[in-house]
Fold this sequence. Notes:
The complex is a heterodimer of chains A (160) and B (682).
Chain A lengths: L20 E12 L7 E10 L12 E12 L5 E3 L6 H8 L18 E14 L5 E14 L14
Antiparallel strand pairs in A: 1-2, 1-5, 2-3, 3-4, 5-6
Chain B lengths: L2 H8 L8 H14 L9 H25 L4 H11 L16 H10 L4 E4 L6 H14 L6 E4 L3 E27 L4 E7 L9 E17 L4 E6 L7 E16 L5 E16 L7 H10 L4 H8 L1 E5 L2 E4 L4 H12 L12 E5 L6 H12 L6 E2 L5 H4 L13 H4 L3 E5 L1 H4 L7 H12 L4 E5 L2 E5 L4 E6 L8 H7 L2 H4 L2 E5 L2 H13 L2 E3 L5 H11 L8 H10 L6 H30 L8 H18 L4 H6 L5 H5 L4 H12 L3 E2 L1 H8 L5 H13 L3 E4 L2 E4 L2 H4 L1
Parallel strand pairs in B: 1-2, 6-8, 11-16, 11-17, 12-13, 13-16
Antiparallel strand pairs in B: 3-4, 3-5, 3-7, 5-6, 7-8, 9-10, 10-18, 14-15, 19-21, 20-21
Amino acid sequence: MKMDVSDKVATPQKRPNIKKGFYHARLAEVKPKKAESKYGKKAVLLFDILDEKLKDNEGKYLQLATEVYSEYKQENGSYRTAVTPNSKITKVFQALGWKFSTQGLDTNDFIGAEAEVLVQDYDYDFTDENNKTETLKASTIDDVNPWEDAQPSVTEEVVK
Amino acid sequence: MDKNILINLARFKEQPIEEDLKIELEGNLNKLIYRINEATTDKAVRENIETLELVENWIERTTAKHDIEFPDLVAFIEGYKGSSTVSQSIKETSTLPTAMLKSLASRHSENSVIKINSKLNFSQIKLVTKEIFEEHNNQPLVFSIPRTHSIPGKIIGEISQRKVKIPVAWKIKIKTKEDEYFIPYLFGERIPPRSNIVDEVSGEFYLYRFLSKDNAEYAVVSTDELKLDDYTLEGLSIDVEDIKIIGDAHKLINKYAVFFVHTATSHIIEIKNHDQLFTKVSKLKLTGNKLYQYICSHKIGENKVQILEHPKWFVKLTSAFLFHRKKGKICPYPMHILWIADRGTGKTTYMESLHQKSGEIQEIIAGSTSTVKYLVPSFKETNKPEMGALAKSSRLCFVDEFFRIVRVNNKDKEDECGRMNDLLEHKDRMAGSGQGRIRTTMTARLLASTNPIAGTNNIVNLVDKFDDAFLSRFMIYYQTDEHIKLINQKKKEGDVFIKDWIPVNEFLSVQDYLQSFDAVYDFPRLVELFDKFTSFLGETVIGMYEARYLHHMECLMDGIIKTRCLSTRDKSFTATEEDYQDLELIWSTMIKGWFKQNIDEILRNDSLPIETREKFLPEEALFILRKLAKTGYKVKPGELKEKCRMEMHPSKLNFYLSLLHQGDFIKERDGYIVHYQWEASE
């Protein structure tokens, strides 16, 4: 049997891209970001998006990340903690159930905590094996809010 | 109640009034009592009492108006209202469908103990036995265990640790002048004296003591081995006669319930592997934060849980205490905790909050009003041997004011304390006296708290007052000043409430599973840490420390790893660097607490390595030292003061700087304050 052949391949989408909006999520992992950012050190928070439809073939939840500053760099080169009453990292962990206290914050204590996350799109450049670069869309977590149980689910109405 | 009785008792005919008035009053009374019910159900009695109260009012009005009295009627009402039923003997149904009897007779034809899924009462099981006995020529004895009664409660102890043969049915030969015949008797029935027993059937059973939720005690007879745990038992309760001696010469015959178990359902869901554990943890939405909050919380009402704030390391210690596996090569035993602190430092409240989650029926033992005899097995002439509170608890045992139980008396100290030693090591021992014997094993972990009474306010004095072999069985915690300060501060801030609560049995199933396996850690690293602290423990304390504290350290490490792995969903249950750091922090804080009074001496002791002494620095001094390290190990005094300005008052800062000076933790060089590690950092 003779068949036609094409050299075109589908661009492998490396980063997940889902519909923008609010999702029920669960903190899965917290790790320090390897590269230092403009104002200091960041922590990467990985969330499981608790949506059955977005599970992969192995039954694992889709993971999305958000980054927050954990330590700010000071003029003399030393670092000071970013965990202050008004900082973003404080707000994120407060949304995950932390009560601000001077006893310190252990991010491990919040693994498994649930939150409502706002998923947004961002653009990134992807270069394939043939050095071809194109701009793709991917999803990121833009905001983390407390999760309140038993919220009414949103249903989409199809207008014919 | 009959209405006519009331009319008769009013004795209208004998009243000194006009005939017309008599008829009128009788009519009025009749109108009032038309609702009187003859039944004796609770509802009918309640309604009758309401009616009689109306009659009482009528009597009062009539007496005042017409100057007549109804003494018999008043006495009747008083008698009816003033009595209540405490218990009733209702005759049991003693019939069964013939088909059922026939089916049982066709299945069982030998001497046996059988289980029946139906709810049959004692009269009915007698009928079953009789039917089977008469149906077959060999006259088999059958004792049935139905699932008639259901009682929730807890197995509080083993009466016997091995299966025991108990006779449950007998065949009695009755001989008359004309005839000779046989009758079956069952367990619980009184066999006539001098009866001729020709056959009997026995079953092999485990025997336990069971305390129901409504506080009734049962002797439980079970074919299956049960744990000292929460169960709902289904089976048959049979009352047997027992005697209680109530005075020097008086005996009281009473009924003691023996419960034959058909099915025992554990309230604690058993977890079998790590996957099941983490599925449960996800279902409970358990995070480290939630776990610590739960440990520190006290449930006040539905949806109202009060948080009792304690230092994080202390809550981690508690969690490790709850989760660790017993350690020991031959006879494993757990780490017990002895918490010593002055009054008003949160000991009792914390203990009560833990008791709430322990599932223990036994309350917290008040040391101020108890004796050692209450804790250990004891034997009374007039009663069965008592297991003692330590062995009665299944998971956790709480003793408040512990030192008031153990007499602080040099002569007796070894004797009194030593009686608990075997129990605290969870050894399986037989205890006995002339009055009886009992086999006991402690399965619970002991959390004891106490005031530092009779000069036991530091470890040296404590070891001097008590037998060190006894003390070594406890992880001793002298509450640190920082801990007390936090408690006092939180008292002023007011109460904090949350809604989150984990159902106790769910938590216990997690706790039980975590206690069932070992976490993985590097033992030589633990030994290294253990040895670090031996250098400054004096002769008096070192014996106690060397005896069992490495065991405690292993228990603590095991618990720390499990706490972290549980909250971070780490299935490896293997130690990480973070766990070793946590262990060192908890260990050093506890040991630091031992020397509260002479901490200055330790800080200034040049013979000790400076890294070891650093662990004894107060929190504030450590803060200054860390600040100094962060700013490059060398800083001008004014700059350091400015950096610490937000956290510390200048006078406090000066005090701690002088303390750091005295211990050589900082030095002054060319107008700079220099950290002791400065040269190394350069």
